[in-house]
Amino acid sequence: MTPPTPPAAITAASVAALALMSGSPVAALAPTPVPKPTPTSSDGHRVAEQDMKYLIQAHQSNLTEIAAGRSAQGKGKSKEVRSAGALLAADHTKLDSGLQQVAQRLKATLPTQPTARQQAKSKELDALSGAEFDRAWTKWMIYSHRTALVATRKEIDKGSVPQVKALAKAAEPIFQADLNRLLAVQKTVGALRRDRPETILRISLPSATR
Predict the structure, then answer these.
(1) What count of other Cβ atoms lies within 10 Å of the Cβ of residue 50?
(2) What is the pLDDT of residues 27-80, one digit of tens each?
(3) C-alpha to C-alpha distance for 90 and 72, rounded to whole angstroms
(4) Alpha-carbon torsion 51, 115, 202, 133, what sign?
(5) 99 and 75 in contact (C-beta within 8 Å)?
(6) What pLDDT is recorded for position 118?
(7) What is the pLDDT of residues 158-203, one digit of tens each?
(8) In CA terms, which of 32, 71, 111, 128 is 20 to 30 Å from 10?
């Protein structure tokens, strides 16, 4: 009578059989790896930090400029301020429409309002009127557009998502044209102090608020 085969021998024999069928004992024993999808900005799983930061900053800037432009249309004393306000509101409404379309395709969540600082500045302007409003508004808009240009040029230089870089490239000449217009307005309303005319042009980027 043939003695029963020990369990260890059965296991060894099974492994050997698998190895022979696969041609390699490692291939026989290792589980089949499941490929992990690589998230990319194009399918919305991930947007690079620089590009996401730009989307947020640009959107909040647009919201600020739209509101400020409409405010200038209603409160501006000089026709130059009222005219500039109308153009700003129109420009940034168009820019933000394109930005939101890109953000939607990338599944990027944008804030629903400007930064706390931008909101505080808007409230300050709401309390002003006449020539004082014109000067403060123009000064703030010059600063805001300088800031937007710095952020936009950084995105063009360091961004990695093509759709977001394209937004920045399209926005840059519009921001520059708006800034040139505002600098012309400030000569009329006297927004910048003659003793320190460049102070408002020293720009540091604010942190974006999600």
Answers:
(1) 17
(2) 333 444 433 333 344 444 589 999 999 999 999 999 999 999 999 999 999 999
(3) 13
(4) positive
(5) no
(6) 95
(7) 999 999 999 999 999 999 999 999 999 999 998 665 544 444 444 3
(8) 32
Q: How far is CA 111 from CA 43, 57, 85, 206, in A?
A: 20, 9, 23, 15
Q: What is the CA radius of gyration of the chain?
A: 30
Question: Cα–Cα–Cα angle for 167, 205, 194, nearest 5°?
Answer: 110
180 DSSP 8-state letter: H
pLDDT in tens, 20-40: 444 444 333 344 443 333 334
Tokens of 107: 């599944």
Give the CA angle between residues 109, 117, 139 to the nearest 5°: 120
The residue type found at 98 is G
**Count of positions (residues) in the chain:** 210
Helix crossing, 49-75 with 116-126: angle to 10°? 10
